């Protein structure tokens, strides 16, 4: 079997092969939008070929920036378009492509790889761990009243007000009218949100992806601050009597609250569905009826794979001082290392050590912990991570926490 990078002439072959792998027939892009493959980077795509030259597998990667705790931006390979045709599964094609791909990512100097897993059991064995989570929040329109805040936060609108104390405002536009606003607001948001990925300009220009990146018809509620600067948006569509919000992006809580009030106040709908709400979001607590917001569809979203443990651990910001010895096993790549992580005043040093470990864990479990969205103690209790002494898990919890719950909205 041969695994090689694609050329410009291979795009059609790659797309056709991936359709076969997923059992899908080619579909027509939505009106006004580009196909999902429009943003593929040819030099980062792979084809697996039989000795006769028949394509039987595909894999690709996008060049993203990932926001780490501490508002640190680092390059990350966004793995996508991975598939093997049914006739050649269980023959090692996928494993061979993943090894080839990880070697290529390292060769580019990247130390992180991320993906959205079509099936959870697949990517754990390749060293990926679930690092962010998301859910839907459904609110019946007749139970959508906001409670008066007991201690209003600065800039958060008071109950019953359409305008916050900061003088912000909301305007409803059509998707075609506000493409540049969406791009600018999302870019500001993702730079301060752990777990968020960049959306390169060509994604917006090509309409590659799901709404609101795709210019499929949508209404967009745009929030502006007191100076008239856009700082949030909610992209939504009304079908029958359900208003579905594709995504809500806001640079602060005041903007999010104003946007939530706007869509929850929409007439002639029976319920509002917020897609992609992060865990522990305060919206449910803002409603007069705590039970009005029903969470469902909770699932993993962004999976993270570390390719250089010391570089990865020293890149992110930290919020508690301490020392931790991590014994890290990487069975897929046949690698193993023991590292002393020392954190002082928000910065980390990570060096090889022969000290006795505090925690022993798989590289995929370290990926799950990396952004602060999964507590080390949870994985200790689950039997994934071994704590070698009392207190090790709680120390790790304190060290790995992030300043904000990591969350990723981007679909790729």
TrEMBL record:
Low complexity: compositionally biased ranges: 148-164
Superkingdom, natural source: Bacteria
Ranges for domain N-acetyltransferase: 1-152
InterPro entries associated with the record: Acetyltransf_17, Acetyltransferase_Eis, Acyl_CoA_acyltransferase, Eis_dom, GNAT_dom, NAcTrfase_Eis, SCP2_sterol-bd_dom_sf
UniProt-listed Gene3D superfamilies: 3.40.630.30, SCP2 sterol-binding domain
Complex and partners: Homohexamer; trimer of dimers.
Descriptive protein name: UPF0256 protein
Organism: Streptomyces longispororuber
Native organism taxonomy: Bacteria, Bacillati, Actinomycetota, Actinomycetes, Kitasatosporales
């Amino acid at each position: 079997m041969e695994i090689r990078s694609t050329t410009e002439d291979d795009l059609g072959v790659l797309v056709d092969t991936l359709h076969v792998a997923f059992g899908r027939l080619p579909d027509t892009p939505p009106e006004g939008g580009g196909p999902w493959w429009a943003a593929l980077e040819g030099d980062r795509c792979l084809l697996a070929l039989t000795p006769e030259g028949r394509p039987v597998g595909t894999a690709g990667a996008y060049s993203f920036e990932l926001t780490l705790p501490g508002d640190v931006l680092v390059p990350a390979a966004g793995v996508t378009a991975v598939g093997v045709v049914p006739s050649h599964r269980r023959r090692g094609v996928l494993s061979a492509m993943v090894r080839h791909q990880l070697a290529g990512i390292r060769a580019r100097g990247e130390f992180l790889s991320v993906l959205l897993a079509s099936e959870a059991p697949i990517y754990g064995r390749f060293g990926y761990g679930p690092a962010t989570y998301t859910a839907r929040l459904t609110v019946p329109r007749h139970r959508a009243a906001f409670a008066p805040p007991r201690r209003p936060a600065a800039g958060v609108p008071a109950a019953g007000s359409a305008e916050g104390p900061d003088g912000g405002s909301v305007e409803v536009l059509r998707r075609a009218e506000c493409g540049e606003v969406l791009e600018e607001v999302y870019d500001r948001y993702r730079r301060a949100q752990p777990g968020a990925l960049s959306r390169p300009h060509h994604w917006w220009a090509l309409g590659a992806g799901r709404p609101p990146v795709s210019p499929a018809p949508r209404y967009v509620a745009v929030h502006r601050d007191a100076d008239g600067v856009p700082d949030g948006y909610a992209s939504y569509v009304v079908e029958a009597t359900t208003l579905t919000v594709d995504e809500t992006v806001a640079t602060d809580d005041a903007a999010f609250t104003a946007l939530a009030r706007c869509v929850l106040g929409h007439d002639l709908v029976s319920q509002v569905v917020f897609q992609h709400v992060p865990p522990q979001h305060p919206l449910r607590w803002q409603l007069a009826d705590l039970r009005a917001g029903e969470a469902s569809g909770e699932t993993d979203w962004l999976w993270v794979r570390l390719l250089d443990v010391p570089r990865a651990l020293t890149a992110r910001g930290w919020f508690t001082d301490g020392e931790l010895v991590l014994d890290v096993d990487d069975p897929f790549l046949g690698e193993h290392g023991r590292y002393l992580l020392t954190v002082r005043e928000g910065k980390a040093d990570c060096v090889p050590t022969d000290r006795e470990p505090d925690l022993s864990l798989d590289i995929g479990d370290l990926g799950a912990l990396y952004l602060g969205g999964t507590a080390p103690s949870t994985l200790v209790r689950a039997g994934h991570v071994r704590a070698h002494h009392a207190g090790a898990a709680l120390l790790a919890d304190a060290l790995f926490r992030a300043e904000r719950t990591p969350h990723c909205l981007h679909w790729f």
